[in-house]
Recover the amino acids of this structure.
């Protein structure tokens, strides 16, 4: 086919019944690429299963290649499943038959049983797919019916499997959908070929041979009859006798014994001619392939099988069309009438001009501009040359303007001939597509429909054509088909038109299509169902340019990569990290190479993404680390520890044993008492989930403070009311009495999952629930004015404290700070001390609203005397509140919270153990494990700390040889049970852990890692053992 | 060296000397290298891992031990361990290379963290990562000064980084309300301090929402407070004007 001329192909394209769109699917190394047939070829590695998806979509049939020795491998199962999901018909090729003969040295009979086994395996996979589908349908039907009559509890064990005919699904040589091949030696056959040969020789009908050549049949030589029951009678099955024996003897003669005479005899009996040069060749393989390629030519076998067994585009199955056209859960019947009519066009696959054009683009791939046919081997005209030079100059100028300082390594333009001839190297995107109906013609106006387009929503007048001005419908654009290509391996040939049923490349669509799209002349055309990706992107890495100035290029490159790769995802995180998600480690490597060499063309560095943590406090634990109850009598070291702890706090801070922290500002004007309390889990979750609502409330309160009102919709008010009620129901008990009404602020950022509680007596301030209450005149009467003015400073301090906890400066979560005392003494005399503290306040100059706190400063010089003293006092109070909160936090049992992924793993029974191993190694916890109905797959649900997830997917795949594939989704925050600052205190703990407790402390490990990353002080010894240092002499 | 001759000397290796002057006398103790700072920060709790010997010297390298009289006169006690602890806590010492190196490294990272927290990429309004800032700091060959606060140095670094990468301090979003008569006059004075004016509402009073450089906040606050004699008000809407949430690149 490589020599077919372009004209011939164009002529062939016009006859849809003579077209076969097929693809080759295989496990890695099963020899899928050794063919010379011009098809859509797809890579076999797990990571690239997205490529398989894109290929499968455009095809009507597929050739599944299986290694004759290894049999069914994980990836074979995956591709079979994909072919099944896309409703395309598979053919099976059992490749590498020569290995059975040469490597394993099986006898023909053994080989036969081996092949039978492989077929059984493949059919078993298809069978489970079929069974699970039937069961699913049945379950759907059951739920629809849903009227279990109590008397009729007859359970139907057949489960409907028997009722549904599935014989056409299975692979069987007598069905003609299996071929045996050895691509390396260039031979392959299907039963049909041998049936033809022998029916002529022996005078038995070829139909009969077709039926009996595979299976438990033998030839009764005397009676010249084919009998059943070869196994029981100890006879050779027909397949062995007529097929395998011949091949084996050929191999024996040519490769093993190199018997010249016998070879000659065989060659003549086969009626083929072998060149003398091949006969004399030293390498028997040459001779072998010379003989085989004439006797059992592989390409012909496969081609004839493809032509006979796989459907032409005209025979597209109605149910496949429906499946393609109905998006998501929508049923085909529910689509608009006009859309349903398009189905006819699909089925006809007509190439008339009137037929609506329907094209599906399954992926975009990047092509170097030099590889495009219009840029190739064509001398540029003078005009074009100058145009290009101009373009290049412009681009160069832009680039220089963009990064003046960075030295541009690009060739200087300055009239150098080289740069202008080469032209700007750019990536062009070519859409990989198939015409389902109509003719794709150059210059035709079409609609480009994004995956989210809905024909029902587009209220276009009937018969609206894309020639009209583009209507503004979401996910829809109109454009002109500009360049059509014939895809020939790496080569592209330019075409003027492509009729229905063909695969093609479309250039110039990068602005309209991101990854996949449907192109049509009819606005009623629904977008095709999204591709089924077997692999979802789970491997996350953070990417940075080596030179910080090249950020722009990196972003641009990542955009291109996203477009070019169906399975890669890129995003910028709030932290500013550029994250790339890929399907696996191999896929990642390719994406990075693409980024480096094609899309961004810069040096990049890849790192583990930053993992967030949260800090919280919990109720003091009842048991110690060795599960002994904590009693007073056991605490050996408590006294010592308490003394140490006291020394941790600086002057001006008093901490009582119950956790109340009293702190005075440096100028001794204000005193604050704060206590930290753990919030109940449910309350924390509630607060976290209602951040938006809290933000609205805060906005309202802010307005209210200025004496204005904000309109809030009744729906929001209702939501606030129920939120308040729910919060109240979670905050039960003596400690939380009317806590809800005493809430002072939420934090951090005014809407987070932490509370500031007003536990002061006699201090009234506007409630956070103001929006619920009728506006009332005058605030609480007894409130001292100074306190009200400093209200916002306390809130700001709290916001600061909640934003960065004392453990590793990560935000707090589920902590409630109750302010239990607050006094402000009016400054009677201009205290000298104020000056000293002013310097300190200076430092906090920027703090007033750090963390988004409402650092409201009223300009009135009231409050404390003097214009300048006011600022410092509020600033000091912010700092004091922050410090008080932090000490209060530290006075309780502090814990770290880790972000957790839920992880769903599908695995077969045999690798279950290893899956558990990997999970437990990474601190994962299995939640449930159940068997998927109708298959031998287990579904394991587990939770796993995000911090441990780097490389998890890859590890689990490696350990289970790809049989288990995890799916990671962020689920929740979880408290890490161990105390990061824990040291043994009780006698038992001393016995168990020793004085230093050297055993690894998970929480401490995380805390130190974060602190080290942030450049905070890490309590670590520079040198562990003083005596074990290297003695440093003068000449080291 | 043919015959091993016993000496009554204990030779110390890896010595770090901590000195202290008290009561007009100089006292020294012999410690291990790289350990004194750990002791002072509280990471090392075992005194024997810090002290080579519980002896107080007048000169460590000469092996001259301090006299008991001098010790009790200067320290008021003759408990050597106690005196050693005092000297350890307050004495002066030569910081060893390793200690200095880790300290500088830590400061370097601290500076980078502060810069990353305060700044954004003006194009995307998103922060840079710490590691990127660190690399940029290395590119401009920034050297950390051990005796300047990290915050101060961070501000310095931002200025220098502006020359090599696109970086600016995250803007503060402010809203201020000025009385009508001051409004017109003040607006012109405020104008140079504002980076972006997002909304302006002038009826009874002037109300503006704007973005400013955080460095100008004090100046602006001062201006409004003094000029309006307490009638105007400033409110910080957000400290950092950055994009929130993850964004998908498409």
């Amino acid at each position: 086919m490589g020599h077919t001329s372009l004209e011939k192909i164009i002529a062939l394209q016009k006859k849809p019944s003579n077209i076969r769109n097929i693809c080759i699917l295989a496990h890695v190394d099963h020899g899928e690429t050794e063919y010379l047939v011009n098809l859509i070829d797809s890579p076999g590695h797990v990571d690239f299963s997205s490529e398989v998806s894109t290929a499968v979509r455009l095809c009507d049939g597929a050739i599944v290649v299986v290694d004759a020795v290894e049999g069914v491998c994980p990836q074979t199962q995956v591709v079979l499943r994909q072919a099944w999901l896309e409703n395309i018909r598979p053919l099976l090729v059992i490749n590498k038959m020569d290995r059975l003969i040469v490597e394993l040295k099986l006898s023909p009979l053994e080989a036969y049983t081996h092949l039978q086994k492989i077929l059984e395996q493949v059919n078993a996979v298809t069978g489970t797919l079929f069974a699970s589908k039937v069961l699913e349908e049945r379950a759907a039907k059951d739920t629809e019916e849903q009227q279990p009559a109590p008397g009729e509890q007859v359970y139907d064990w057949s489960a409907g499997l028997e009722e549904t005919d599935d014989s056409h699904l299975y692979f069987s040589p007598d069905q003609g959908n299996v071929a045996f091949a050895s691509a390396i030696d260039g031979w392959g056959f299907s039963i049909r070929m041998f049936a033809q040969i022998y029916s002529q020789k022996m005078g038995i009908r070829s139909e009969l041979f077709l039926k009996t050549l595979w299976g438990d049949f033998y030839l009764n030589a005397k009676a010249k009859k084919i009998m059943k029951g070869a196994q029981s009678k100890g006879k050779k099955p027909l397949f062995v006798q007529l097929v395998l024996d011949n091949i084996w003897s050929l191999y024996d003669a040519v490769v093993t014994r190199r018997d010249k005479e016998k070879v000659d005899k065989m060659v003549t009996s086969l009626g083929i001619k072998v060149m003398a040069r091949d006969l004399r060749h030293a390498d028997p393989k040459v001779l072998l392939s010379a003989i085989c390629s004439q006797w059992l030519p592989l390409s012909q076998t496969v081609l004839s099988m493809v032509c006979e067994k796989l459907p032409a585009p005209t025979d597209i199955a109605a149910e496949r069309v429906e499946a393609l056209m109905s998006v998501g859960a929508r049923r085909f019947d529910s689509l608009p009438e006009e859309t349903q009519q398009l189905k006819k066009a699909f089925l006809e696959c007509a190439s008339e001009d009137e037929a609506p054009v329907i094209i599906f683009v399954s992926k975009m791939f990047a092509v170097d501009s030099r590889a495009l046919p219009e840029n190739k081997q064509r001398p540029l005209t003078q005009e074009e040359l100058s145009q290009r030079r101009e373009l290049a100059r412009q681009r160069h100028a832009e680039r220089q303007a963009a990064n003046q300082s960075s030295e541009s390594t690009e060739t200087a333009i300055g009239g150098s001939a080289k740069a202008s001839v080469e032209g700007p190297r750019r990536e062009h995107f070519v859409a990989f597509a198939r015409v389902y109906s109509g003719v794709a013609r150059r210059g035709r106006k079409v609609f480009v429909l994004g995956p989210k387009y809905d024909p029902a929503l587009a209220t276009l007048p009937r018969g609206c054509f894309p020639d009209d001005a583009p209507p503004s419908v979401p996910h829809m654009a109109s454009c002109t088909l500009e360049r059509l290509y014939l895809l020939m391996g790496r080569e592209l040939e330019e075409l003027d038109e492509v009729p229905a049923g063909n695969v093609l490349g479309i250039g110039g669509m990068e602005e309209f299509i991101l990854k996949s799209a449907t192109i049509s002349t009819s606005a009623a055309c629904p977008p095709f169902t999204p591709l089924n990706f077997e692999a979802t992107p789970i491997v996350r890495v953070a990417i940075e340019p080596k030179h910080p100035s090249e950020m722009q290029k990196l972003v641009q490159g990542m955009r291109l990569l996203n477009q070019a790769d169906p399975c890669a995802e890129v995003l910028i995180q709030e932290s500013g990290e550029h994250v790339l998600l890929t399907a696996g480690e191999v896929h990642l490597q390719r994406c990075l190479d693409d980024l480096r060499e094609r899309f961004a063309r810069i040096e990049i560095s890849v790192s583990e993404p930053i993992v967030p943590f949260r800090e919280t406090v919990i109720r003091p634990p009842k048991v110690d680390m060795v599960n002994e109850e904590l009693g007073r009598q056991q605490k050996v070291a408590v006294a010592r520890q308490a003394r140490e702890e006291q020394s941790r706090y600086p002057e001006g801070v008093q901490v009582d044993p119950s956790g109340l922290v009293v702190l005075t500002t440096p100028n001794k004007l204000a005193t604050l008492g704060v206590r930290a309390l753990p919030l109940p889990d449910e309350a924390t979750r509630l607060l976290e989930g209602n951040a938006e609502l809290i933000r609205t409330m805060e906005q309202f309160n802010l307005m209210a403070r200025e004496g204005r009102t904000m309109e809030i919709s009744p729906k929001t008010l209702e939501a606030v009311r129920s939120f308040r009620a729910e919060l109240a129901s979670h905050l039960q008990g003596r400690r939380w009495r009317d806590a809800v009404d005493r809430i002072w602020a939420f934090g951090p950022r005014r809407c987070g999952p932490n509370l500031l509680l007003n536990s002061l007596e006699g201090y009234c301030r506007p409630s956070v629930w103001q929006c619920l209450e009728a506006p009332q005149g005058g605030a609480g009467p007894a409130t001292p004015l100074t306190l009200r003015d400093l209200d916002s400073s306390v809130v700001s301090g709290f916001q600061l404290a909640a934003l960065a906890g004392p453990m590793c400066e990560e935000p707090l979560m589920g902590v409630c700070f109750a302010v239990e005392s607050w006094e402000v003494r009016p400054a009677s005399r201009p205290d000298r001390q104020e000056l000293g503290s002013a310097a300190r306040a200076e430092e906090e100059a920027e703090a007033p609203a750090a963390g988004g706190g409402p650092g409201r400063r009223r300009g009135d010089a009231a409050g404390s005397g003097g214009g300048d003293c006011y600022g410092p006092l509020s600033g000091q109070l912010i700092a004091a509140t922050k410090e008080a909160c932090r000490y209060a936090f530290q006075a309780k049992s502090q814990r770290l919270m880790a972000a957790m992924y839920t992880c769903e793993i599908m695995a077969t029974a045999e690798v279950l153990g290893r899956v558990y191993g990997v999970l437990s190694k990474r601190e994962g916890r299995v939640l449930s494990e159940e068997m998927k109905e109708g298959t031998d797959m287990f579904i394991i649900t587990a939770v796993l700390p995000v911090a441990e997830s780097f490389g998890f997917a890859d590890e689990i795949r490696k350990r289970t040889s790809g049989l288990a594939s995890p799916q990671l989704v962020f689920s929740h925050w979880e408290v890490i049970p161990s105390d990061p600052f824990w040291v043994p205190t009780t006698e038992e703990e001393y016995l168990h852990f020793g004085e230093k407790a050297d055993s690894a402390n998970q929480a401490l490990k995380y805390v130190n890692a974060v602190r080290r990353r942030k450049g905070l002080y890490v309590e670590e010894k520079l040198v562990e053992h003083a005596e074990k240092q290297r003695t440093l002499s003068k000449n080291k | 060296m043919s015959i091993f001759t016993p000496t009554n000397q204990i030779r110390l290796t890896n010595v770090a000397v901590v000195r202290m002057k008290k009561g007009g006398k100089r006292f020294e103790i012999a410690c291990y290298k790289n350990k004194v700072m750990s002791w002072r920060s509280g990471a090392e709790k075992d005194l024997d891992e810090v002290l080579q010997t519980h002896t107080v010297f007048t000169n460590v390298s000469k092996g001259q031990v301090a006299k008991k009289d001098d010790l009790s006169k200067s320290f008021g006690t003759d408990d050597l361990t106690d005196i050693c602890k005092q000297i350890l806590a307050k004495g002066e010492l030569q910081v060893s290379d390793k200690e200095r190196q880790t300290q500088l490294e830590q400061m370097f990272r601290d500076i980078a963290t502060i810069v990353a927290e305060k700044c954004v990429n003006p194009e995307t309004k998103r922060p840079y990562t710490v590691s990127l800032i660190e690399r940029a700091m290395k590119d401009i060959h920034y050297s950390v000064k051990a005796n300047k606060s990290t915050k101060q140095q961070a501000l310095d670094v931002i200025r220098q980084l502006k020359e090599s990468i696109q970086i600016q301090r995250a803007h503060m979003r402010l809203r201020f309300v000025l009385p009508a008569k001051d409004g017109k006059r003040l607006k012109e004075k405020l104008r140079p301090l504002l980076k972006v004016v997002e909304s302006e509402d002038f009826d009874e009073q002037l109300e503006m929402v704007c973005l400013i450089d955080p460095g100008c906040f004090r100046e602006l606050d001062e201006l409004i407070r003094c000029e309006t004699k307490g009638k105007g008000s400033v409110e910080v809407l957000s400290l950092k004007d950055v994009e929130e949430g993850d964004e998908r690149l498409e």
Remarks:
- The two ends of chain A are 71 Å apart (CA to CA).
- The longest strand of chain A covers residues 893-908.
